């Protein structure tokens, strides 16, 4: 069977095929490039015409005002008068005349120890005293009639004096066996029971005067020129957070501690409401004259970081279309004393600068912002007066 022979391709035909193929590929590449260019431009135009809206934020002004100044310390509350009631003599408890936690007055009886023997001794001494008085009178009558010498009268007088001295000693022992409250105050938890034998000095109950407390604290020696007896002190305890109790400096230690280079101070606090208790820790603020012309901002405006503190400052500007707009810029600041809801700014801002006090997490330098509805630019809060 005869075979069909393939006609050889001429060099010219091969060249034509290669040119056609190259043209097709070039057209496809150009079309793909043009499509990608058109798509990217369309996307750019779309986002250029759809810029994100301004970020709503709350703004406040940096203002100049007079602020209170303090010396701060940590103190401890102690009772002005506190004792552990204890017997002066040993004895068995026959009666307990108080309840734990009761308020008592000075002189109120608390505990009776057995004094039966002393009471009997007192009766006998009184009888001896009456007899000694009779003997002394007889001796004086005899002396007036020169029937007895003066030495006999003196002897009977000495006997009477000795008996009377013994009576006073017995009465004193009886009084010691009736334990009384030494001052007005509140009793603690009872430590004894009826029938129990108490040794001299054994603890019966604690007695504390809560009407007045002392606040003991220390301050660096550099603060000594700013301290004075009678100076006002504000006390805050963790148990009553947010409430200040007023005290007055009563004593300043006359010498500085050689170990700590601090000076001890004691303030007196009126505690008639009996809210505070001895042993509590206290945050102490010694009130100083206020500092005038101080720049402050709301505390929420400051971003505290390990790299430094800063705030976002809002400034007026112009958009590309000429419309007014508000942008923010992060500004580093140096922070001073912290106040209730505000903070002192020592550098970085000027009076009247508008700072962002809410919404900072969504901001960056140059971001466009708008005051949030319901959060207009507000004046600073009034600081407390002392």
Describe this structure in words.
There is one protein chain. By secondary structure, the protein is α+β, with helices and mostly antiparallel strands. It folds into four domains: 55-70 and 291-371, conserved putative lor/sdh protein from methanococcus maripaludis s2 fold (Beta Barrel), CATH 2.40.420.20; 74-79 and 211-290, Elongation Factor Tu (Ef-tu), domain 3; 87-113 and 178-203, OB fold (Dihydrolipoamide Acetyltransferase, E2P) (Beta Barrel); 115-176. It contains three helices and 18 strands. Strands 1, 2, 4, 7, 9, 10, 11, 12, 13, 14, 15, 16, 17 and 18 form a 14-stranded mixed sheet that branches. A four-stranded antiparallel sheet has the order 6-5-3-8. Helix 2 runs antiparallel to helix 3. The longest helix is centred in the first third of the chain and has 38 residues, at 11-48. It starts with 10 loop residues before the first helix and ends in a 15-residue tail after the last strand.
């Amino acid at each position: 069977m005869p075979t069909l022979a393939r006609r050889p391709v001429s060099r010219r035909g091969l060249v034509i095929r290669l040119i056609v193929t190259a043209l097709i590929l070039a057209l496809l590449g150009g079309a793909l490039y043009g499509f990608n260019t058109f798509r990217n431009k369309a996307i750019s135009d779309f986002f250029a015409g759809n810029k994100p809206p301004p970020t709503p934020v709350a703004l406040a002004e940096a203002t100049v005002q007079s602020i209170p100044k303090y010396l701060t310390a940590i103190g401890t509350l102690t009772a002005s008068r506190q004792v552990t009631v204890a017997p002066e003599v040993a004895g068995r408890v026959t009666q307990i005349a108080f309840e734990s936690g009761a308020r008592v007055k000075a002189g109120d009886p608390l505990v009776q120890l057995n004094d039966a023997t002393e009471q009997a001794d007192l009766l006998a001494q009184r009888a001896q005293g009456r007899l000694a008085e009779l003997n002394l009178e007889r001796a004086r009558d005899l002396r007036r009639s020169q029937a007895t010498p003066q030495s006999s009268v003196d002897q009977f007088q000495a006997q009477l004096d000795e008996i009377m001295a013994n009576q006073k000693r017995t009465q004193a022992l009886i009084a010691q066996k009736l334990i009384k409250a030494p001052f007005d105050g509140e009793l603690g938890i009872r430590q004894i029971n009826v029938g129990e034998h108490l040794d001299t000095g054994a603890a019966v109950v604690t007695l504390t005067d809560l009407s007045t407390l002392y606040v003991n604290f220390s301050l660096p020696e550099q603060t000594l020129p700013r301290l004075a007896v009678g100076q006002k002190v504000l006390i805050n305890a963790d148990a009553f957070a947010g409430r200040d109790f007023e005290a007055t400096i009563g004593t300043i230690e006359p010498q500085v501690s050689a170990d700590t280079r601090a000076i001890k101070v004691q303030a007196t606090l009126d505690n008639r409401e009996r809210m505070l208790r001895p042993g509590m820790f206290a945050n102490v603020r010694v009130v100083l004259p206020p500092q005038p012309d101080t720049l402050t901002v709301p505390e929420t405006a400051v971003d505290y970081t390990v790299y430094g503190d800063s705030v976002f400052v809002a400034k007026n500007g112009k958009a590309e279309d000429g419309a007014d707009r508000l942008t923010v810029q992060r500004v580093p600041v140096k922070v001073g004393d912290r106040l209730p809801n505000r903070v002192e700014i020592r550098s970085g801002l000027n009076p009247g600068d508008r700072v962002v006090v809410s919404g900072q997490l969504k901001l960056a330098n140059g971001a466009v912002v708008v005051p949030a509805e319901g959060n207009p630019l507000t004046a600073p809060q009034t600081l407390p007066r002392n």
